[in-house]
Amino acid sequence: MPETAIAIRGLTKAFGRNAVLRGIDLDLPAGQVTVLMGANGAGKSTLVKVLCGVHRADAGEVRLEGRPFAPASPAAALRAGVVTVHQNINDGVVPDLDVASNLLLDALAERRDIFLNARAMREEARRIAAAVGLEIDVTRPVAGLTLADRQLVAIARAMARRPKLLILDEPTSSLSLTEAQRLFALVDRLRSEGVAILYISHRMSDIRRLADRIVSMRDGQISGLSETKPLDYAGAVRAMLGHEITEVDITIPPPGRPVLEAEGLQLRAEALAFDLTLREGEVVAITGLVGSGKSELAAVLFGLQPPVAGRLTLDGRAFAPGSPGQAVASGVFLSAKDRRTNAVIPDFDIQKNLTLPFTRRYSGLLSLMRRAAERAAADRAIVDMGVVCQGPRDGIMTLSGGNQQKVVVGRWLAEASRLLILDEPFQGVDIQARRDICRRIRDSAPTRTTLVLCAEIDEALEVADRILVMSEHRLAGSHRNEDIDLNLLMAQVAGTLSGAAQSMEEYA
Amino acid sequence: MKPETSLADLAIRYGFLLLMAGLIVVFAIARPAFVSPQSAVFILQSVAITGILALGVTATLVVDGFDLSIGAVATSAMMLSAYVMVVWEMGAVAAVVLCLALGAAVGLINGLLIVKMRVPDLLATLGMMFLLVGLQRIPTEGNSISTGMVLSDGRNATGTFAPEFLMLGRYRIDFILPDLVPLSVVFLLAIAVLVWVFLEKTRHGRVMYAIGSNAQASALAGINVAGYRVLAYVISGVMASIGGILLSARLGRGDVASGNNLLLDSVAAALIGFAVLGAAKPNAFGTAVGALFVGILLQGLTMLNAPYYTQDFIKGAVLVVALVFTFALSGRTGRARG
Asked: Beta partners for A479?
């Protein structure tokens, strides 16, 4: 058994009344890659931020090689030997400086002499780069490097400090396959040098390639641990997504005529093509991990980006929207995920938020808004969605998250559509708001086809007639929402069954 | 709600209007002539041009943009109108139409630079400002334009400003007293009402405010964000050219030295407008009040014989106070650029 680099016991952290970490017990052994999986909001980022000194824990203990470890700042964590490479790689490098200066940045910040010896710096930088197998011209400015090289520079810089724990937060999310390979080779090398590595990722191919152990997090707690080979990937996904039996009362309607048909649709250059048919009256949920291609599918259908290949038809006619405006005009609506950035107009009241996409409907001569018509539409939507508020003129930011979500979803339910896409419509809402939104989606479904994208399987089971699984940017499974084989579905989410996922693995 | 908070709310909502009323009272006590119809009209006339420019800037502020080229557009329109009438010897209608076309074209170019070329708004319009300041002087080799001026080929310019054109800046309408209200004040009021209706009452204005508050969410609601951004700069350019036409008509010549304060005064008016009625956002009514406020202040100070440089200082101080009203006291995160 390898020695434990870092031991976490009973760690808790709350922001206000919101308990994010609820008693984490976790050991990270030296010389092993521990993969951490967890859905959005599970507490992964908070855990990382406690370890790298951004946040302080409320209670609990962390021991680094047996000594208490409670960094007061990121710099203190770094000095103690905990190195973090963040998802946003530009946190780790200074683009305007050359590679050598970046590699020596920490040393530069601590030095007291005024003038720099360029030659000595380059020598030192080359030594650091060579130590991690980074073959790069150290005089090049970092701004001219690819994302992957910047990442390697950030890691090399970190490694110059002989760290005990290296945290990699979704490091491959924007890398190509060959770039990812170089990163994996570096991770292998560091593992063999006895560094404990905490690797956060949703990419099953990365996880299969690197993991010695898999830890799953859910709702601020460790919900699963797999450390004996062969690792239980599907079990890890199940532990991360969880599944409590919710009473589902879904009556599947008879299949209507096709509304949207996709043929040979390809979402990424390296992904496989797939077909998709959505029928009138049905509610179809697509589930899959972060990065499985759900949002890209929505972007293609809503005119935000063209597909790599394939053709779409809407009610039998060719459909190739060039902008969201064109999609809306054709009757294809998208309620976007992440309401704060993609949906809410913070300066507007409830009424103006509700009517935003369809102002034309409530305006008359000279484009003047017809107040009474707009008000009536807003009142109707508030009742339909069950928005809890004083009245339609309340500011949107005075509402709770769940009620804000009802408003931005209700915005698209107020008008008849042919295809309604809801990307994570239950994101950050409480159980009651989720029920309300779900009921409203299903009640209004017969006259259109509805596509709901959700990472949580519970949500899919609660809302859909049919559940599709996406993995590696293509459809990996289809299930009628009756006596679903959840183990099969989880395995498809994890990508362990599909031939495509296996072939993806070959690059490793 | 606790009484303290409601008092603070009242201060934020009506503080600026109270300040303006207080200012009028102080000036009226110090100089009784301050409160006469003539004085009121003089104030309105002095703010007519900056007010119209400020209403244009307001349109760009609404979509979270900024237009620094308005002063240069106005002086370019002034020079163009003089050139059209004095050198080309064309009529008033041609001069007005060409000036409006110039404003619209500059606005369109600004908008396309920002939307298509992705040049940051401040830089794009700053560049356009420098360009226009130079361009407007090229045809006359840096000289002002007036009847009888010597052209580069040695001839004397024989054209004159059309009387109808001069009326735009000089004609006064009988209102209560004979010859009281200048036509330019009527233009200001009409344009203020039009811009207010456009921004507050039409769906286009609604959508522009949505873009200013959250452009990405607006795009995902199917709104043509780029199109509305360009429209805002076209509105701004056209407003600035109207200001230039009125300036030219008032001066009766194409004066290279005039219009220096147009940009700063109108931007100040639009930003002071944020504080009016606690709006904390660009709005046409606030901008009009802001322009009026600047006018009252300057007229009062002039009547008190304050030197011109103290006037600039006080203008700046008022702007800072107004911004504090808007952002610190109302406690909202500023939507204006930081």
From this structure: A467
